[in-house]
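Example 3.2
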Amino acid sequence: MVELNLTPGRLFKTNLQVFHNFIHPYIHPYFRKLVEEMIQETPTDSNIPLKTEGFTTLAEALDYAATGASGLNFYDRKGALRSVLPYSDLRRQARKLARRLLGLGIERGSRIALVADTDPDFVRYFFACQYAGLVAVPLPAAVHLGGRSALIDKLRGLLEASGAKAAMAPREFLPFLQEAAAGLGISHLGPAEYFEQISPSNIPLRSLEAEETAYLQYTSGSTRFPRGVVVKQKAVMSNLAGITSHGLQVRAGDRAVSWLPFYHDMGLVGFLLAPLASQISVDYLATRDFAMRPRLWPALISRNHGTISYSPTFGYSLCARRLAENGPAEFDLSSWRIAGVGAEPIRADVLDEFASVMAPGGFKKEAFLASYGMAECSLAVSFAPLDKGIETDLIDGRRLAEGNDAVAVNSSSFPDGVKITSFVLCGRPLPGHEVTVRDSQGNDLPERKCGTIFVRGSSLMSEYLNNPEATREVLEADGWLNTGDLGYRVNGQLVITGREKDLIIINGRNIWPQDIEYLAEQMPEVRPRDTAAFSIAGPQGEEVAVIVVQCRQTDVDMRDEFVKGLQRAVREEFGIDCLIELVPPHTLPHTSSGKLSRSTARREFLERQQWTEELPEKLVENFR
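Structure, written as tokens:
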């Protein structure tokens, strides 16, 4: 984005960035290197006093951050710096864009859909909405494994549900957005440049206030169609203060690194809004670039001495596996003090593998920080203690399955016949938040009794947009939110065991699907994230366990041996029989945040088998 009314120094810097972004791919590598060297990352030192609390709105937080030198840095798929956006420039450009958005003539509080690619334009427009009194709606910027039609269908559903009055997308995603919006009556739709041609309004800017909606966050939809979480300014500011002051304990000299998508709450709140609200610089990789080249992540941390970065478990797994396959790299990860993990069930064994692979580069396993949260609570609910690494609770798995009792087992001497299950401790609630665990009748449970987790506090959503029925399902009149997650408490810390709707119940026993998936992944033919476990109704209405496995083996006999071996392992471990379906790679569905969607996997399984009231005969024979 070029502005002509700049000082000579700033004009030179801006033109360099334009040259770098649009021309440098076509010039000689020598001159390209000169340009890259002239564009510098924003410094780690903001040169202003650190402030993590006391802001009432996102605009107010940016106003303060803009008085310092820190900001946002965007890197390309080769790890080269492609764009720099200091907070000072972000504020100036966002306020200018805000006047143009007001020139659209739409009323205060109207929703503006923004395809949330990892790009400065999304950030500018998100904050332009804050200053203009409009509500940003981040939309997914990923062509899912379902392909073009799947993304278009998802975008259309979100545009309809949000009632967006305008929509913006990078040129790469514009055709998807245009097709998704066809017939919806959205009068203003286009790339960033389209809105920059709008005549600015003379109406004075009035930023969103504490009681107004900050943005609309669509849930990832792992167990249901995504719902629009209405996040008030006061709610997200409370959560940001808790994250930065208590969870991460941000301090001078911190620098964040992220590949998480902006359309997911952990990417948006955790690695855009939280760094801005604590005035620290952030280095970004696009999610798709990380997926293709995972080593870029630790390389960027090493290059800029990053101190805070986060990932779901699968990100650590992918990175460790790729580095192990391609040989170790020379990284200096000694600065990485917080390696956060959340957004899906935390696998201690995966994190141990990552720590082992990264240890030669100075990575410390004590840097791991377990946490728990959800979009309905802005982002974070609880954090484990800092500098402790991953702490696990070993329990008797059979007692948990049969009676919801999380009975601790002595790690030095396992009693005979005890099935050991390990869960990660996810810490204590943030200040101003309460957590309780309830049984199916709504009674509060004591520690080490597993049930449904409820949360109450200042960061909670006000409602699901235009969906009072769904809101009443989860949000009680006294402020308690039913998270839909299962877990228990131990010594004041929260332990997550799974999703309530994913739970498999056979013969009165509770079986967590991730336990079955983990067992399948221990077989040499199966890679991590290649399985989905769920249950379906059998011929007599009984619940039947199903495992869908992405299989790369083509030999018929070897496939048959694998199925029999996995069925035998499940029978020995869980005492149940199961159906197993082998599917090609890239078949299993995932949410926009990368989590396995078991509900979608179940639906697609039933569609593939042309399910009616009974099991197909071929699977009945397999099952027997």
